[in-house]
């Protein structure tokens, strides 16, 4: 686990620097208020957080939402990767019904599942960050997007749309049927000598995970349409059922266990017993549900807040650790799984020690000149989602502690309702305290 330096922590506790953003300071306050700081990881700094999210920062919003939700279930991610390997040989296999809808949704993106399984440390780190620093995760993503847009790295084309809404960069698919995933070296965000380059795309598009035509439609397991969205205005991630009860499908004897002709509501379908080759969906009817519509529907159900789900998972982990006779906590299972992966012939080279996600302190402007041509060795062959971060020495800025643009703006504009002390996620309508404290409204 990455640690913030003792000196930096002392300064934060002392309230040093009025311009310090949401990172660490509010997290420490929340931990102290809950009295459970010892059971929670130390917060990542702004620089560390940006390195953590660099590999997914330019992905479409809805995919970021699914990945961050699924990161809370690292054991299920490992199981899902093994399932996909077996599925290549046996197409009759079905996902486990016990898996979270986010994990089932990610089965539609096998390369991403493999990346998260192979780099389990990164997945666990992201899951912890979502549990304890959700707003910081999203602020860091927006910071990197600001830089990418300013550098011309990403822009609207025939595959994605890049727009600005309420000072936030929104990235979404240009197609209602498929998602193209950007391909880019995340090192360009944090390696000083790395030359910026425009994004490319993975060769094949992925089907929308919530679209019934997707290979592993989440409804096949959860019994309802599962979708995810990011609320950038409230710094929150949402995932779960979005109530598609006004979408009908033409089911012409599509059930394997009974005869049925005519239209049926999509939420009433038993997807475990459906022959997908026999169903028809009115594309015009289904496509009227854009991401804004879906997000609004998801947020109507308070149980879909990922911050609450993360709180409950971490709380259950701690209870399992403390109470004799209980099943081992998730973190123990994660360690066992990780040890097992390391014992196998490695497909991905791992450093002997956990990656030290420190980077040189940021300059006060998003425009960083390239000091010299990049020395980049990219392996040939099939592209993989992101890369393992490198060890980098910490080089303090000569200007002192300079904050990043997006984090500084968020900090300077925050009000009591949106960013009160001890809150995470920014939303005034909910407060989650470290260690699984109760939700406040």
TrEMBL record:
Tell me which positions the record assigns to the signal sequence: 1-24
Biased composition annotated in UniProt, kind: Gly residues? 418-441
- Coiled coil ranges (UniProt) are none
Q: Where is this region: Disordered?
A: 323-441
Which InterPro entries does the record match to this protein? DUF3300
| Key words, A-Z | Signal
Q: Does the keyword Signal apply?
A: yes
Q: Which organism is it from?
A: Mesorhizobium onobrychidis
Chain ranges passing through the membrane = none
Its recorded name reads DUF3300 domain-containing protein
